[in-house]
Specification:
6-stranded antiparallel sheet; 3 helices; globular; 26% helix
Length: 86
């Protein structure tokens, strides 16, 4: 099983902007949810980013530690600067 890296407490507007920017940069986007909760899965071949957002805990970004180098190179500096939890 892959070890995961989680970035939490991503503000809603920033979470949406990141999701949309990755999709515009060529990541395949699958998304769903509603008013209180949203989710997105983005992939570009092997690298996969899972994103969750809700009204109570803000946004979360999760990806495999083994893919961290590839994924973090695609993340903006302000997102990379947020605390990560294994």
């Amino acid at each position: 099983m892959a070890h995961l890296i989680r970035i939490s407490d991503v503000p809603r507007a920033r979470w949406i902007a990141l999701r949309d920017q990755l999709a515009a940069d060529g990541w395949t986007l699958i998304r769903g949810g509603g008013l209180d909760h949203s989710w997105a899965t983005l992939h570009r071949g092997e690298p996969v980013i899972e994103m969750q957002w809700d009204n109570w805990t803000e946004g979360e970004i999760t990806y495999a530690q083994e893919q961290a180098g590839l994924i973090e190179a695609q993340l903006p500096e302000d997102i990379r600067a947020l605390p990560k939890a294994p």
